[in-house]
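Incident review: delayed structure delivery

Summary: a single-chain prediction request sat in the queue longer than the usual turnaround. Root cause was a stuck worker, restarted by the on-call engineer. No data loss occurred. The affected request and its eventual output are reproduced below so the record is complete for anyone auditing the incident later.

Affected input:
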Amino acid sequence: MSRILAGFGLLLAALVAIAVVALDVVWPGLEIARMAPRVAFVALPALPADAYENPDLWIARPDRTGDPAQFLPPGISHQRRGRAQVFFLHPTTFYGRNHWNAPIEHWDSRMRADLTVRSMASVFNDEAGVWAPRYRQASLGSFMTDRPEARRALAIAEADARLAFATFLRRIPRDAPIIVAGHSQGALIALHVLRDMVRGTAVARRVVAVYLAGWPVSPRRDLPQTGMTACVRTDQAGCIMAWMTFAEPADPRQAITMASHYPALDGLPADDAPLCTNPLTGGLGDTAPASANRGSLALGDELRGPALIAPSVGARCDRGLLIVSGPPHLGDEVQAGGNYTFYDFALFWRNLRDNVAAREAAWQGAS
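Output delivered after worker restart:
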């Protein structure tokens, strides 16, 4: 009898182990599917051609008061005023399941978008102007499914962004250097803008650098389609920096699964490790200690005000991810799997400001 009980116990333990492994593999997919929109897709009409002449369709632009991109933490002032005009596409901030695309007037997603511009696009406020449009972003849930509606939702968001970029180009000085930046959904759309509106045009010669965070950029499938190369050193202009930040132990499966619903710029699935440039060094695949980090940006909460935390955290590139150990607490937007991509800009805020200055100097020297 004891042997039977022992055998049953071993069998039960084996079944539990198999169930745990299966759940670990299947659960991320189930969780993603649970977030998909629960309504029928609605094809929204295109915005009028002059829509982005309206300042209210911009979160940030040089003539707006209360511009969140102009935020500086206490004790930090402008070190210089560059010539570059910056076009920034904010990440996904609409989490509802009742729309495939966010209504522009949706209060909660507008508030979140403003916060992301404050945290991320403020990196660039030493430049002549930061332009960050509101757009009918694809909902978070649309990235959780591979249904055709997801790509149709992204196409609506992309059309808005293209319209905003065309307005940006018309409104800035004709000879102004340009920086393009985006995060997550904004980075994905920025890749399409680079391929279709910058590559092979006179605008391409004006690009100081491109900063794409929170989305896997394929060196093989994406970069050649942009007409640009990866940044490998700080004194290089006209290149692309891309990174996704994870804390150890990193589990990027959810992020990679979401990205896999969309083809790379050449129309094929990405089949290589994402591009990883280290914001602390400006180089490709580098490692940097915490002492190299000149300051991370914390926007503050009910217990603590905004601050620049320095020294902060080191970072290293590992299989396409930017890995950090023991990052400071900057907020509550850390996702499953040690996903710190919401803080891709904030963790390296001061270094990225230096990086922008160095690349603009390189661009000026080459032009």
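Verification: Residues 45-366 form one domain.
Action items: add queue-age alerting; document worker restart procedure.
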